[in-house]
Amino acid sequence: MAKARFILIGGFLGAGKTTTIARLAHAYRERGRQVGIVTNDQATDLVDTHTLRATGFEVGEVAGSCFCCNFNGLADAVAQLESHQRPDVILAEPVGSCTDLVATVVQPLRRLYQDQFAVAPYGVILKPSHGRKILKNERHAGFSPKAAYIFQKQLQEADFVILNRIDELRPDEVAELAGLVALECPGVPIVRMSAKTGAGFEALLEVLDQQGNFGGRILDLDYDVYAAGEAELGWLNSRLRVTAPAPFSLDDLSLNIVQRLQQSLAASDAEPAHLKTIGMSAGSHAVANLVSSDTPAVLSLASHCRTCQADVIVNARVAIDPQVLQEHVQAAVHAACQAVKATPEFLQTQSFRPGRPNPTYRYAEAV
Ligand SMILES: Nc1nc2c(ncn2[C@@H]2O[C@H](COP(=O)(O)OP(=O)(O)OP(=O)(O)O)[C@@H](O)[C@H]2O)c(=O)[nH]1
Ligand SMILES: [Mg+2]
After folding, report:
1. Predicted model pTM
2. How far is the CA of 92 from the centre of ligand 2 (A)?
């Protein structure tokens, strides 16, 4: 039996991993391949899982701990996908605050599952908004040096770097970012791409088709700094139900929650790594995102749906105390609901600082 292609796409929070994976999934399906996707988060209720399922793909998830700390959860999620229909291609999205994925995920896959999977080159997406500031060592990069350490380490372990969002960048900005990446990880190939428009996407497919022994850039990593950097983030996943006496726009509600959160977090000087909401009603989906304080909130998936009832999930990763983040989210949700004359009922909220990473496996030598 042919081995399944295992593609892990890394990168910081809000870099464009889910958008890239959705585009890859469509491209492989067009080539006649069976595609399975695995998402990952520190908690349950993932916007990404619903977003990718909305595009019509089989999506498993590892929720509650990252792939590195629950490698067996990743293996189980893949086995679950295989029990439905064996995928030819597995696309996996790790948590955007994780690093050391080569030692803790790629190498275990290559050593323990070598008969099952052919592991593709490990690509890490560069997020221009925070990337430019962090790689230029600017003092007001939005995150502390410890969180910036994670960002840099993520790039350093890549087989290749994906410079995303070129649709928004001038050629000189692309060149500047490519130069910064070259300084951070000398000699590493760079794919310039827009996951949104598809520009440069063929080059990504070509790199991912390459055969060989990948995942050789094992990090020299200080787990104390890594853990402290992750713990600086407030992490929140909320699930709620919204009801109204008259139909409201699901798109307006989803976007408005993110816009109000952006405003209130800015007033508290708290840098968002990624805010995302998905509004769901009778098979329609509206997704809104914000990836940094100095970029606008966007409706990345429009539902064009008007409804009297919706389920909404809010995922927020922000440099702020998680308890305070929860207050911001509740206030933003209430205000956005009020604006469309609806009432929210919070069904579940998890808000916390990510715990210290404790990998299931860690191979310090590449095979
Ligand atoms: N303009 C533009 N927007 C993009 C591009 N790629 C992603 N985005 C947008 O950036 C936001 C974040 O994208 P995601 O794909 O959710 O990012 P992610 O890396 O999966 O985020 P996390 O899972 O939270 O770490 C969304 O609003 C996307 O639509 C791109 O190439 N160009
Ligand atoms: Mg994602």
Report:
1. 0.98
2. 10
